[in-house]
Amino acid sequence: MAKLTKYEKETIILFDEGEDKASIYTYNAGLRNRLAAFSKKYPDLCRLEKSCDQGGVSYVLDKSRLSIRLQPPMSEERRRKASEYAKQNGFNAKADND
Questions:
Q1: Per-residue exposure over 6-31, b if at least 16 CB sit within 10 Å of its own CB, e if not
Q2: Which of 31, 45, 68, 69 qualifies as a cystine partner to 62, CB 3.0-4.6 A?
Q3: What CA–CA distances, in Å, run from 57 to 62, 63, 68, 93?
Q4: Can you give the three-state secondary structure of 39-91, one letter per residue?
Q5: What's the start-to-end Cα distance of the chain, in Å?
Q6: Boundaries of every domain in the chain
Q7: Mean pLDDT (10-residue bins), the chain, 98 residues
């Protein structure tokens, strides 16, 4: 079995206005972990439908539990403050490479 490229590792979210369920198919490791934890904690709201040999998973969940959040870009002032906070609190991993 051939290894999938990053372009082939999709995340697909499907739902329609007539149903109360949503389907999420993903290869994204972070999302897979979040869905697994959510389905374990709330099995009546989210369940694993299938998993693929190449690492993809498909979950069905209550559509009311799904949220898509769009975040505006950070202003330069906010970016500067976040950078200062990170440096003061030990989140300066990039400085090791500079």
A1: eeeeeeeeeeeeeeeebebbbbbeee
A2: 45
A3: 17, 17, 19, 32
A4: HHHCCCCEEEEEECCCCCEEEEEEHHHCCCCCCCCCCHHHHHHHHHHHHHCCC
A5: 41
A6: 11-65
A7: 88 95 96 97 97 94 94 91 89 54
